[in-house]
Design a protein that fits this description.
Blueprint lengths: L18 E10 L6 E2 L2 E2 L1 E5 L7 E7 L1 H18 L35 H6 L1 E2 L5 E2 L3 E2 L3 E6 H4 E7 L8 E2 L2 E2 L3 E7 L4 E9 L3 H13 L13 E11 L6 H14 L11 H18 L5 E6 H10 L6 H28 L1
Antiparallel strand pairs: 1-14, 1-15, 2-3, 4-5, 5-9, 6-7, 8-14, 10-13, 11-12, 15-16
Helix pairs in contact: 1-4, 4-8, 5-6
Length: 337
């Protein structure tokens, strides 16, 4: 149902304008932490395109989105034996394990040839760099900061369960702001000039990732609701623009109330309705396909990766072949010069 002819048969060396956009509504399912220097990240922006009031919104920086997703993809590549589980030994300088699988150690020594390296990019100092083919931007909460966060007092009791030991009270008490559950972050993830296998690799990472932000072993669960897939020859709307447009639409319906979470289904429905108009308003990108609604649901249900581990294994193997072909054609040759 997706026009696979839109995707290049091989990753080109230079940009060729094959854009695939995944439009999402990210929803926190528990208390999450998106912070820098101990405080939640925020931005002061207009509430909507028509609503001119300035409000403070929670922000989810780009790396807070892409890092968990690429780590999920790397986990799968190791699980299915496509990259090595070994850590890189800087003394031995070995780049592959005994089975011939590349050793790709995140932020230590990238292998430069797996789907993660080729799609999300890498930088290895003088050894080379590859620009990410996955574009992301800061996501903004649909509702205001005051409505979307909550402060908690945290403690670390002793094994007895109390905060004192031998008559001395511990100072391990802290207060921390958290993002509330059912806070919505509209977002667009753009993949440029990737083959269909690598597009499905990124899509699978998005659908599988469940935890974002800090303290992911304790909290931070999130659902990524897929709204649409847009194939075009350029970039479409920004995250802030679709957030403001959605705010305006829900405000007109009285669906945004103080101290109350927005109904996710109402937001999903309205965003699906708004999207064609947002695409039509833009000057420039030619939209080749807009896949949403019932067609999108059918498409997702028919994906082989959802049906068996063999389907997922074949997807990852195809993505690995495309990545290695790009490495052999362009990156490996540079290293030999």
């Amino acid at each position: 149902m997706l026009k696979l002819q839109h995707f290049p048969s091989a990753i080109p060396q230079r940009p060729m304008g094959h854009y695939a956009h995944i439009v999402l509504l990210r929803e926190t399912d528990s208390y999450a932490l998106f912070q820098t220097d101990g405080e939640l990240n925020t931005a002061r922006v207009r509430a909507g395109q028509q609503e001119q009031e300035l409000i403070t919104r929670l922000t989810m920086f780009k790396r807070k989105q892409t890092t968990p997703e690429r780590l999920v993809g790397r986990e799968l590549l190791r699980h299915y034996g496509l990259i090595s589980p070994d850590a890189y030994d800087d003394k031995a300088k070995v780049t592959a394990d005994k089975a011939g699988r590349p050793i790709c150690d995140y932020n230590v020594r990238f292998c430069m040839q797996c789907p993660d390296c080729i799609t999300y990019g890498f930088a290895i100092g003088d050894s080379g760099a590859e620009k990410s083919k996955v574009f992301s931007d800061t996501a903004y909460s649909l509702t205001a900061y005051e409505q979307s966060h909550e402060a908690f007092t945290l403690n670390a009791p002793y094994e007895s369960g109390s905060m004192s030991r031998a008559g001395v009270v511990t100072s391990r008490i802290n207060e921390q702001d958290h993002v509330r559950p059912q806070t919505l972050f509209p977002a667009i993830v753009t993949i440029r000039d990737a083959t269909s296998a690598l597009f499905f690799y990124v899509l699978n990472n998005l659908l599988r990732t469940r935890r974002y932000g800090a303290q992911t072993t304790r909290t931070g669960t999130m659902s990524n609701h897929l709204v649409a897939i847009v194939l075009a020859d350029g970039e479409i709307s920004s995250n802030l623009r679709i957030t403001q447009a959605l705010f305006d639409a829900l405000k007109r319906q009285d669906a945004i109330a103080p101290a109350q979470p927005v109904d996710p289904q109402a937001a999903l429905s309205e965003l699906g309705t708004l999207l064609p108009n947002l695409l039509a308003e833009q000057n420039g990108p030619v939209v080749e396909q807009l896949l949403q609604g019932a067609e999108l649901s059918t498409f997702l249900a028919q994906l082989p990766l959802n049906k068996s581990d063999e389907g997922l294994r074949e997807l990852l193997a195809s993505a690995m072949r495309d990545s290695k072909a790009y490495y052999s054609a362009y990156l490996e040759k540079k290293g030999k010069k």
